[in-house]
Structures are given as C-alpha cells and as structure tokens.
Write a structure and sequence with these properties.
Alpha-D-Glucose-1,6-Bisphosphate, Chain A, domain 4; single chain; alpha+beta; seven-stranded antiparallel beta sheet; about 35% strand
C-alpha cells in the first residue's frame, strides 16, 4: 500500500544526547520551535501528548497523540492523528510522527524528522498536513539553532 511521507533531514553539530535534551524538553518549545509550537505531556512511552502545530500564517490545530517510542539519543515517535478523528480504525487511517537521531562518524547528529500516513485516507491525503513539508524543515532548522547556540537546558 502506497503511503504519503513528509521527510526533513538536518545535520546538527552536537551529540545525539545533546539533541535529545532539547528535543524532549517540551516545555521550552514555545521559546524556539517552529511549526510544532507546543507539546504538553511527558516524552514517555504510553503517555499522551497534546501537540499544537501549524504553519505561522495559519491557525494552529491541536491533536492528542500517544507516545510510541522515547529512546534518549535515538528516537522520539508519536502516533499521527487527524484532528477530531482519532477514533478512526487503523485500516482507514494511521500514521507515525518521528524524530530519528543518528550519530555521524564525526560525533555530530543527523536528525531525520518524518511523518508517514497509511490506510485508505492516508492514500487519499496526497499533500499531508497543510504546510507540513515546509514546517518540518523549519522545525529542524529551529532545533539546529537552539542546540548549536547552547540556548537549551543543561541536563
């Protein structure tokens, strides 16, 4: 079954654990993040996070997503849902929003930020969320600035 994927890749001059510290510090997102404007709740498997997202020129929307994986320095993922339609069966729609952190040979980190959609509605949603491609890239660049300038929390 064909699926729609949004994908943005950015290299950051820091270790995967340092990138994770900023990525998992949801409380600081309003200070620096683009597109994913807020995330409420813990970065813990099984918890549900409240995600506020959208491009800056449009009204943001809110989704509630279960956290699927939270492995420090490696991967953060939550289920992708359609606002107001989280009740849809997986055969109709399912998706995953993830950040994969890969350590490069020089000790820096490659961040792969992606979301993919499956199911009948996923096949019909050619564009994905409004502004998703640009939004993911903007988020990655904001994350890179936050990590590389040292403006994040020291954990």
């Amino acid at each position: 079954m064909r699926m729609r994927t949004i994908n943005a890749v950015t290299d950051i001059a820091a270790t995967p654990l340092r990138v994770w510290e900023i990525l998992a510090d949801f409380a600081s997102y309003p200070q620096w993040a683009a597109y994913i404007q807020e995330v409420g709740g813990p970065a813990e498997v099984g918890s549900k996070v409240r995600v506020v997202l959208g491009p800056p020129d449009r009204r943001p929307y809110v989704v509630y997503c279960p956290v699927l994986e939270a492995t420090p320095g490696a991967r953060l993922a939550w289920a992708a849902v359609i606002p107001g339609a989280a009740w849809l069966p997986h055969v109709i729609y399912t998706g995953t929003h993830e950040f994969v952190l890969t350590e490069l040979p020089d000790g820096t980190t490659r961040v792969t930020h992606r979301e993919y959609f499956k199911g009948l509605l996923g096949r019909l949603t050619k564009g994905g969320p409004v502004g998703g491609d640009e939004g993911f890239e903007a988020f990655n660049q904001a994350l890179k600035r936050r990590v590389e300038t040292g403006a994040g929390p020291k954990i």
